[in-house]
Specification:
The complex is a heterodimer.
Chain A (H helix, E strand, L loop, with lengths): L4 H66 L7 E6 L5 E5 L11 E6 L10 E8 L2 E8 L1 H51 L16 H50 L3 H31 L8 E3 L1 H18 L3 E6 L6 E3 L1 H18 L5 E8 L3 E7 L10 H5 L17 H11 L3 E6 L4 E8 L1
Parallel strand pairs in A: 7-9
Antiparallel strand pairs in A: 1-2, 1-5, 3-4, 4-5, 6-8, 9-10, 10-12, 11-12
Helix pairs in contact in A: 1-2, 2-3, 3-4, 4-8, 5-6, 6-8
Chain B lengths: L3 E5 L3 H13 L3 E5 L2 H8 L6 E5 L7 H10 L6 E5 L4 H9 L4 E4 L4 H20 L5 E4 L2 E4 L4 E4 L2 E3 L3 H12 L5 E2 H9 L9 H14 L7 E4 L3 E4 L5
Parallel strand pairs in B: 1-2, 1-3, 3-4, 4-5
Antiparallel strand pairs in B: 6-7, 7-8, 8-9, 10-12, 11-12
Helix pairs in contact in B: 2-3
Classes of the chains: A alpha+beta, B alpha/beta.
């Protein structure tokens, strides 16, 4: 039989309450019984000792007289008597004849008169001269007390059972409510709604909250990845449309051109557009690859040398674009394990971006800065810069800023730079060059 | 005698396209459909060049290249593959390929690379190490790293000299932008902007300014060619 978790928790709680109560009740019951018998035994022996002391001083008549005074009014449970050698009562309070063997015994519990109507008696039997001294107490009252206690204990057990059920239900409901909140969010996520979160009380930090927090974090990450994926797909489709549309238009035009030389020129333009699309796709592959490049692709490289090589490649390009190219390299950078090709491509993208967005802005600086913990390779321009609010958007894959949407260029450049920085356990950051932009790859040493 | 090229390619339309283009360019072409056949044919050692795809049935392209090299056959191999990431290219070259070109490719790029590979093995066979190169009236002293044209000395920077040396070693052939990026700068990515064109432009100004005839020609849609005659 399968039970719901709630029912199982309730059942467990009830069972535990019952078991603990039964153990407690059993303990109280046995201890009370033992204590009552112990009191009777002590009183009986004391009385017996006292009577024998009287016998030794005053003989049988003194004992009989003492017995006459010993029993308080209304006390019917006390037994105190002098018996003859066959067990018949001579004087005192006791059944007319007792049925147990007449041997000296300090304390025994037995039904001494063999009649069905009476209960157990705790008694002491001691010889005095030719007679026997019987002291004891009927246990009727004890029995009655015991019955009363048993009744009370039964009520307690019953009550604990009820309380246990109630506690179990409350507990099960509490657990159920908190689990259901988490389960509802998971079910919603399963159905595709990733926006829901489990409410978490900030002050309370119990296991449910930890679970909820972890779940919320995980959902946040999944949601971010999903959004990113959708943005990539949308942007890819969007960004591929423009060059493909241009390609199509140019093809249509080229078909109509009669002059062979002009047609050849138009066809050359088609190749340029095709290469643009191919370049976008290659870069996309590099980006997704760079998320999982194995470390054996890395080689020991002097960062200064690597930056110098790129600077040498780009120097005429920057100058041709009408900018002054300033290269500042701190040669003290230690050799590092780097992916030479990808890092070079990232730096070349930095320069390309600066060229595209800051053309005519005076001076472009390529700088290698060495700190104690890391090195920074940065390109500084004097262009329009990027407003602080737009910087996060600029770093997103395909996240071209609206101002740049009309310019050619796939907007993948920044995303590749970031991926390469992440591959080297570093980061890519944008800063203000007042005026202009500093785009910086920071790599840990 | 025409040069023989072995094409190892499982995609029949690509193979047909290659075979047609290369036949028109004057090469004798043979095709194999998978790595095993390719290895079998290549081991005859009669080819001047092998063009191999990477993802082949039976034996993959790079294993085939390794096996060919292992058998002591030095025929130049050009790997032609859709695996276009930088690391894929490096893998290809490490496996023993002489050149690596990504699909989709322009035929001009392919034929420039084929010619470079074929001529290279010729040169290695016939010419000892040269200390001077000359193209028309251009003289290049590789030891002194000095360049003169029509007797006039032309001062060049170190990288400009390397660029000119590369062009001169392939004098008369088309050299593409990516070939120069790979061989001179050792970069296997596409920098996007017209980096190589700018370098060539500078070199061209130094080589041609003040001289009557052009010597560094642009080949549309393909690259550049260093030659005395314009065609």
């Amino acid at each position: 039989m399968r039970l719901s978790v709630t029912a199982r928790i309730a059942l467990l709680s009830v069972t535990l309450a019952l078991v603990s109560n039964l153990v407690l009740v059993g303990f109280v019951w046995t201890r009370t019984d033992a204590a009552v018998i112990g009191t009777v035994r002590r009183e009986t022996i004391e009385q017996s000792d006292a009577m024998r002391a009287i016998y030794r001083v005053g003989g049988l008549p003194a004992v009989v007289e003492a017995i006459g005074h010993a029993r308080a009014a209304g006390d019917t449970s006390l037994l105190l008597a002098v018996l003859d050698g066959r067990g018949y009562r001579i004087a005192g309070y006791a059944p007319p004849r007792i049925d147990v063997p007449l041997t000296p015994s300090l304390f025994l519990v037995a039904d001494i008169d063999a009649s069905a109507a009476t209960n157990d008696i705790g008694y002491s039997l001691m010889p005095i001269g030719r007679h026997w001294l019987l002291t004891g107490r009927r246990l009727d009252l004890v029995e009655a007390e015991r019955h009363a206690m048993e009744g009370a204990l039964a009520v307690a057990v019953l009550l604990s059972l009820v309380l246990g059920v109630a506690a179990g239900l409350v507990l099960a409901r509490y657990v159920g409510v908190r689990l259901n909140r988490i389960a509802a969010v998971i079910e919603a996520a399963g159905d595709g709604d990733l926006s829901r979160r489990v409410p978490v009380a900030p002050a309370r930090r119990d296991a449910f909250d930890r679970l909820a927090n972890q779940l919320n974090l995980m959902l946040g990450k999944v949601e971010r990845l999903m959004v990113e994926l959708r943005v990539v797909t949308d942007s890819l489709a969007h960004d591929l449309r423009s060059p493909l549309a241009r390609l199509r238009t140019k093809t249509e035009q080229a078909v109509l051109i009669a002059d062979p030389a002009a047609r050849e020129g138009a066809l050359g333009g088609l190749l340029v557009e095709t290469d643009l699309v191919m370049r976008m796709l290659t870069m996309l592959i590099e980006i997704s690859r760079s998320e999982s490049v194995s470390r054996d692709r890395f080689i020991m490289v002097e960062p200064a040398e690597l930056v110098e090589e790129i600077a040498e490649l780009y120097e005429p390009v920057v100058e041709e674009a009408g900018l002054d190219f300033f290269v500042a390299i701190d040669a003290s950078a230690p050799p590092m394990l780097l992916h030479r090709e990808l890092l070079s491509q990232a730096i070349s993208n930095l320069i390309d971006n600066a060229l595209k967005h800051a053309a005519g802005g005076g001076v472009l600086t390529l700088r290698l800065v060495v700190h104690a913990q890391d090195i920074a390779i940065q390109v500084e321009d004097r262009g329009a810069g990027i407003a602080e609010a737009d910087r996060a958007q600029a770093l997103k894959r395909f996240g071209r800023l609206d101002a740049a949407r009309t310019k050619p260029g796939a907007g993948l450049g920044m995303a590749l730079i970031e991926a390469v920085a992440r591959l080297h356990n570093g980061r890519f950051e944008l800063a203000d060059n007042v005026p202009g932009l500093i785009a910086r790859i920071v790599l840990p040493v | 005698m025409s040069r023989k090229i072995l094409i190892v390619e499982d995609d029949s339309s690509t193979a047909a396209y290659l075979a047609k283009g290369l036949s028109e360019a004057g090469y004798a072409v043979e095709s194999a459909r998978d790595g095993r056949d390719g290895l079998f044919l290549a081991s005859e050692g009669i080819f001047d060049l092998i063009i191999a795809d990477r993802m082949l049935p039976g034996l993959d392209g790079l294993s085939m290249v390794s096996a060919i090299r292992g058998a002591g056959i030095a025929t130049p191999v050009l790997v032609l593959s859709a695996l276009a990431a930088v690391d894929d290219r490096v893998d290809g070259l490490r496996a023993g390929a002489d050149d690596y070109l990504c699909k989709p490719f322009s035929f001009a790029e392919l034929s420039a690379r084929i010619e470079a590979l074929v001529r290279r093995s010729d040169r290695a066979a016939t010419e000892p190490t040269k200390t001077r190169l000359s193209v028309g009236d251009l003289e290049i002293d590789l030891l002194a790293r000095a360049v003169t044209r029509a007797g006039r000395s032309i001062p060049l920077g170190a990288r400009e000299f390397n660029l000119l040396e590369f062009l001169a070693r392939h004098a008369g052939q088309v050299v593409t932008r990516t070939m120069m990026l790979e061989k001179i700068w050792n970069y296997h990515f596409d920098p996007g902007s017209n980096v190589v064109d700018v370098h060539i432009g500078r070199l061209r100004r130094k080589l041609e300014d003040g001289f009557a005839s052009p010597i560094l020609h642009t080949v549309r849609g393909a690259g550049y060619r260093l030659a005395a005659d314009p065609t």
